[in-house]
Predict the structure.
Amino acid sequence: MATKSIAFANQKGGVGKTTTVISLAACLAEAGKRVLAIDFDPQANCTSGLGLEKLEGHSVYDALLNGQPLTPLIKQTPYPNMDLVPSEEDLAAAEVDVARVDNFLQRFQIAVAPIHASGSYDYIFVDCPPSLGILTMNALVGVDRIVIPLQCEYYALEGLTVILRLVEHLRGSGANPALDVDGIVMTMFDSRTNLAHQVVEEVRKHFHEKVFKTIIPRTVRLSEAPSYGKPIIHYDKHSAGATAYRSLAKEFLKRQLAAEAAVVATLAPVVPETPVPPAQPAAAPPTG
Ligand SMILES: Nc1ncnc2c1ncn2[C@@H]1O[C@H](COP(=O)(O)OP(=O)(O)O)[C@@H](O)[C@H]1O
Ligand SMILES: [Mg+2]
């Protein structure tokens, strides 16, 4: 399978982007998929949430600004099949500095191309910062798909409209004509509140099967896991949060298979080869 890259984006902070990147990546890695997470947020929560140190100069900054290769920045995580391009505070300057260079929207697309081409990973997950600035735009221009984590709360739908408009714009303007929404993940669901149920119902009414069936519950264990630098399936593998993200991983993989099958179906049918007639024995030379 070709490498597929996915940005996890939502301009709101605290909606579960980083938690979903770390948890889903860990579940896929556990299932044998090779995953590279790229921390695109200067807050570097994805880096610390995987137990890695933030180190000055170790972020995508130079790759975006100066075209330096991304590959030397890749760090192994403590978990098999799962690598990370870390982040640190200085990446914040990219919002200003990258805006001044040529092709400022294509910088990530160019930087990530060799990793795509190497086929070293099944999935590249980009953990976007909580804004629709230069970093998120670069991520959205450079990836194949977007997953939108959405908190089950009142303003969720309004925020969703804004980011979907941006996706439409990037597609229509030709910046990323093939960009598509892989799915919407409802996060931090509190089954005791009517509001949470209403929000899920409303989002499903508008976006139908784009919304993943799996809903991520609000749990204490999920909120604790980052302080131990561990994905939920390694922090408490039998917790409700771990079960939910495993279920999301299954659904995610099924969607990828369905998408691949749809591509295969568009290919021209194979024309059966015309059978080659068996070779005739050479005619005997005339006698007489
Ligand atoms: N399902 C959940 N239940 C409880 N806490 C959660 C859940 N998902 C995320 N959190 C916590 O909420 C905070 C924000 O989540 P995070 O994934 O960092 O959001 P974002 O990356 O969108 O800013 C973090 O402290 C995280 O540990
Ligand atoms: Mg985050």
